[in-house]
Write a structure and sequence with these properties.
With about 60 residues, this protein is mostly helical. It is built from 4 helices and no strands.
């Protein structure tokens, strides 16, 4: 039974590795680079979200 579970786990891992390899082969390099930089620009996105009109309305600040 242990070997059956181990073999199934290895097949799942093989599928996941194959999926990652396929995605990286199909996706253009500039798109991969752009998605890899998303965590590096969190501060910019966070400041945009914090200064948005929805947050000001929530805080009770008038638009006038």
């Amino acid at each position: 039974m242990t070997w059956f579970i181990f073999a199934g786990d290895m097949l799942v891992m093989l599928f996941m590795v194959g999926l990652v390899i396929w995605v990286f082969m199909v996706t253009p390099d500039d798109e991969i680079d752009a998605s890899a930089e998303i965590p590096l620009h969190d501060e910019e996105y966070e400041s945009d979200l914090l200064s948005g009109p929805a947050l000001k309305e929530e805080a009770g600040v008038s638009h006038g």
